[in-house]
Every structure is written in structure tokens, then in C-alpha cells.
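re: ur question from the group chat, yeah i did fold both. here u go
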Amino acid sequence: MENQAKSKQFISLRLKWAFGTAVGSLLIFIVVTMALFMTFTQSLFRQERSLLNQGMTNISQQLAKSDRPLTKQGIVTIIDPDQDHSLVQGADYQRPVIKELSDRHLIVNVYNPQGKNLLSTGRPDVRPALVNDRQVRIYKGAHHQILVGHMPIYSQKSRQVIGYLQVENNLNTYVNSYRQLRIVCILALCLVVLASGLLGYFLSFFFLQPLSGIHDTVKAISKDPTKDIRVPVVKRNDELAELIETFNEMLDRMQRYIDQQSQFVSDVSHELRTPVAIIQGHLEMLQRWGKDDPQVLDDSLAASLVETKRMKNLVQEMLDLSRAEQVEINFRDQRTVVNDVVHQVFNNFKMLYPEFTFTLDDDVDEKIVANIYRDHLEQVLVILCDNAVKYSGERKEIHLTLSRGMSTVEIGVQDFGEGIAPADAQRVFDRFYRVDKARSRKKGGNGLGLSIAQRLIEGYHGSISLESSLGAGSLFKVVLPIIEDEEDK
């Protein structure tokens, strides 16, 4: 039931991307459209208002030429004295007044001082207002708002009120343009939402396509962790390409860990099987008849002790390997003078193996301090020198070097013995790996020394490498980062 509920709640990232793109585009387009819509409509309204004011000015200037209160006959005479639609000559206007009276946008009404209608070009929607100054207002019309201007008409000579003028602009053109523009904006908004949603979906399908490969790979690995499958690499230079590359690297590491773990378990079981079988065989022999023979009893006890010691060493090395993988956590603040440790190990091995010739090339004059625990550096050098002693062959000579780079210190341990083939050289740092297992077991090795050394050095952000060839010996190089200005810390 829970799985069904979770599956019902699943929403594709492509749909989320498409929805987010559509909503974002809608909000942005609404803001832009509203700004353009308001600007355009306000411009239209100012044009309509200007048209009304211009008509009022033209008509009032023409009617103001009368010296007496306006009458119907007087208005006709003033407006068209020659019956030829003559132009009104003024400082600011040069257009026929008859056009103002015949303009379908405007409804002109002229009243005498007593409020009687003298001239009307249409039925007014607003009652006449006899005002003392010029006014332009918005009124509620039959279908929509209209613009109405009121003003008194003063005689140019006597400066007395000779009538009143009322001009109405029905704003039909403005309203029609307003409605058409609103419809266009709504359609544009719908188109933008649809187009941006589709574009967002297809873009998400294109950009997020690599996620399908990751999803399929994760699903396959969750069913079978040992399955060797990787995410298909895409030819793109973006975050998803880097994610795929990192993800595949993680899978490679995980696969290596699984393989190493399987190999580790196999090797441990194999390494323990032999000593356990030997001890069990001796004990069974003693139980049957060997305990009565002093010589057999001594030999069996000695052999059992040897195998027990081997098992103890193996367990100890396994513990060392486990601790080596945690050095970055437990020993990250340790400091060690590398010169002192190298010279100490060199002197100890000279004393332990007098039949060997040990040489040390130290090219460093000052103290070199590295971020490593002293015992761990000593353990690594002991492992390398011990291997060099074991595999030196007839030429019993060990060569140690100490040198400094720009920001690193390099320690080399070289023998001139058997050497290692290139195929084996790539695996000498693997757990329990031996180039010659029979000879290595006789020499007391468990195949964990180099693995411990590698884990220790890499835990301190260093590196260890091998250069070797059959019959010419081997050279192990340890490189560690240097800590500068130790005295000031």
C-alpha cells in the first residue's frame, strides 16, 4: 500500500520543469503586458481627451467673436458666414469649425446664458452644466464611461458670458481599441503559456535525458550490485555530463571494493584454511597415537605453534590494514620530521642485517616536516626495507634515497634482486597478492604489507609507486606533501 501511495505521488521532473517554465513566463509576460497595455490605453485616452479639448477650444474661439448673448441665428452666422466653410483664423488653430461639429466622436451642445439649447449635434447623455470655468470630467454613459467637457463662452470684446458649451466624447473608438487590445493580450498570454510549457517540456526532455540513463543504471545495480553496468556517456560539457562521469567513477570504485572484498574473503579463508588444517591434523594425530611418542609430540607441538604464530601475524596485519584506512580521521594533525625517521630505519636495518650493504643518499640539508604519524612512516619504511631484504637474491644490497621537490619529499627503497614482471607490478598493492605464493609463504609473508603501506601513505595524501623489471630489482617510491614553516606554527 505504501509503495502504491508513493507511486501515485510521483510527478515527473519534466512536467515540473514545463509547469515552472509556463508559470514563470506567464508572470513575466503579465507584468510586461500590463505595462504595455496601461501605457497604450493611457496614450489613447490622452488622445481622446486632447481631441475633446481641441474641439472645445476651436468652437469656443469661434463663438466668442459675438458681442451679444448667443442665439441660433447668431451661431449659424458666426460658424458659416459665407456659406463656404471658411477657415477659422487663430493663433493656434487653422481647421474648419464645421469639422468639429460634424465629428462623430464629439457631441456638441451650445446653450444661451439662460440654459436654453441653441445648437446640438446629437442627443447628450449628460445634463447641461452651467459652470464658471472650464471642466473636463468622466461620466457614466449608457454603455460605458464617456468624457464630457463644460465651459462658459466669454465675448472677446466685452469679456461677458454669452453662452455655455458642452462637448461629449463618447469614447467609442477608445473603448473598441481597449477591448481589442485586451483580447489580443489574453490570447497572447494563452499562447505564451502554451508555447513556454511545450518549450520547457521539450527542453527538459533534451537536458534531462541523461537522468534516464542514471535511473536505469541505479535500478539495475539495486537489483544486482555485482552487475557490471555503467551510465552511457553523453557528448556534452555541462553539469549532467560531470555527474555521469562522477557517477561512473563511483560505480568503478564500488565495483573495485566489491571485487577486493570478495578477493579479501577468499584470500583470508584460503590463508586460514592451511594453518587450521595443519593444526587440526597434528592434534588428530596426537589424539590417536602420537601423544605416546615424545618425538612426534614435540614435532606436532612445534608445528602447531608455528602455524598459530602465522595466524596471529595474519590477524595483526588485518587489524593494521583496517586501522590504516582510518588514519585521515585519527591522525590528521600529526607532524613528523622525515629525515629522522629515514635515518633511524636505515641504522636499524644496518644493525639487523650486517650481511647486507645498506646505502643512503640524503640530498636534503634542512629538516623536512610532513603531515604523518611517526610510527606510521616508520612502519611503511620497515615494510619496504623488509621486502627488499626478502627479495634481494644473491646481490645483498639495499639502496635508500631521500630528496626534496617543490612541495614534496620523496623516499626511495631499491633492491637489486628478483624484480617483478609488469603484469604483477600492477597488483602488488592488492591484499594477499603474492608474485610467487609458494616462495612468499616460505619467507613468512602474508601479502598484506604493501597494502598496509599504500593505505597509510594515501591516508596522508601521499602516493607510493613501484618501478621494477625482472632480474633487475625493484624501486619503491614514497611521496609525501611537505609542511612549510613548521617553526611558525
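okk and heres the other one u asked abt
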Amino acid sequence: MGKKKNRKKRSKFGTEVEKESIFWDLPYWEALVLCHNLDVMHIEKNVCDNIINTLLNVKGKSKDGLNSRKDLQKMNIRHELHP
């Protein structure tokens, strides 16, 4: 499960150096079942930002564009929003 603690990497000078994540220094890191997990707080923030930017039609931040309208057309849904 997971990656090995010590991994060798070749430096730009051709010698081998050991590369180890700083997270392995944490006392609880090796005991974790999932070392890589989703950060709910940031996912929630990004989803909220995208919804608000789309609803307020913020220029350059909206996810509602020509490509998304074409995707609706391909999926054959929301006919009133087709380009």
C-alpha cells in the first residue's frame, strides 16, 4: 500500500540522491490508511465559486460558454440552452 518511503532519484549531475517526502516526518503519517485524500474544504470552495460566477455571469470566470453549450447539445438535454 502506498509508495515506498525512500526513493532514489538521479540529480542533474548524474549522482543518485535519495528523495523523501517531508510528510514521512510526521508521527502519524505511516499509520494512515489513505496517505492521499481529497480536501473537502477546497473542493467545496471551488464548486461554490464556480456556481456563483456562473449565476452572476462574471466575465472570464463563468463556466457557461460555447463549449459547455455544445456539450448540452451533444447530450441532447436543455434544448433552450443550445447555441
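fwiw on the second one: The chain has two helices and two strands. Strands lie at 7-10, 16-19. idk if thats what u expected
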